[in-house]
């Protein structure tokens, strides 16, 4: 039963999202607002007349939030899967980046700072073919650590 409801909601969300993003939907909404505005004098711009548009737009907005979020979640997941496939297919890319969308905001901020630093370093390179990946940076850091350890032993 749950699968049927999810499938029905997904099909409905796709249909509504596609329709509401169309020119016809915009023109329909514009026509509703125009008709409402034109009927103002007929209803003497009463509170009920104002309440009609306020209630209608509130209900539509409330429902659209869920529809739009469902569509964005699906698109985001599809993009993440495509990116994961590209990372997995590239022998030079770090597989550690697969599935990072499950990290906390703080962990993502740490990665962002790291990539900002890599970007800054790559701008200094004359050769644009140099690799600046997490793995390359880790290898370089390990070399530095080994050199420091050897220097301490030598002292």
From TrEMBL:
This is Low affinity Fe/Cu permease. GO terms for biological process: transmembrane transport. The chain crosses the membrane at residues 21-43, 49-68. The lineage of its organism: Bacteria, Pseudomonadati, Bacteroidota, Cytophagia, Cytophagales. It comes from Dyadobacter soli. Residues 120-155 are annotated as: Disordered. Coiled coil: none annotated. Residues 120-132, 142-155 have a biased composition (Basic and acidic residues). Keywords: Membrane, Transmembrane, Transmembrane helix. It holds the Pfam family Iron_permease.
């Amino acid at each position: 039963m749950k699968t049927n409801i999810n499938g029905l909601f997904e099909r409905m969300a796709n249909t509504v999202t596609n329709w509401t993003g169309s020119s016809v939907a915009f023109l329909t909404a514009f026509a509703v607002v125009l008709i409402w505005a034109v009927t103002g004098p007929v209803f003497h711009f009463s509170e009920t007349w104002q309440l009609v548009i306020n209630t209608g737009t509130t209900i539509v907005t409330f429902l659209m939030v869920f529809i739009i979020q469902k569509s964005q979640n699906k698109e985001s997941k599809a993009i993440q899967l495509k990116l994961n496939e590209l990372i997995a297919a590239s022998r030079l890319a770090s597989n550690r980046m697969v599935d990072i969308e499950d990290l906390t905001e703080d962990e993502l901020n740490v990665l962002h700072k790291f990539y900002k630093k890599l970007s800054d370093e790559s701008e200094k390179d004359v050769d644009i073919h140099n690799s600046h990946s997490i793995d390359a940076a880790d290898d370089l850091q390990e070399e530095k650590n080994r050199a420091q350890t050897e220097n301490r032993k030598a002292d």
